[in-house]
Amino acid sequence: MSVGARARPGIAILALVAATGCRSSGPRRYVTVQKNAQGVRREVPFWTTADAMQGCMQEGMKRLDAGIKAIEAFEGGKCAEGRIGDLGHGTPVELMPASPECKHLAYVKVLDGDTKGKAGCVPPEVLSDHVVP
To answer: Is residue 19 part of a domain?
Structure first.
């Protein structure tokens, strides 16, 4: 029996394992945040639903109109209730199948960091298929 013939069963098993592993997870993406004017990258809010994000935006805009400082306008209240956490630049996530709760947002599962293993919604424009330095 040739070496190739003996190796075929092992190669077939490896191929099967690899194919099974690929089907069980979605594409990997990375959170990408542009630097602001001060050269700082802020974190991206990670939401339970698109409605939770919308509620925060509406409440925050009302607070801004009332004269509250920009950063403080989006803290507490609805902005805290529907927020799972914040994702930093470069955070790896798994892109999941579309979710009715996320509507126009991307449904992702976090692969690293404080919210590792949690799934929720982020704006699709903050996701990249490669790590951005």
So the answer is: no
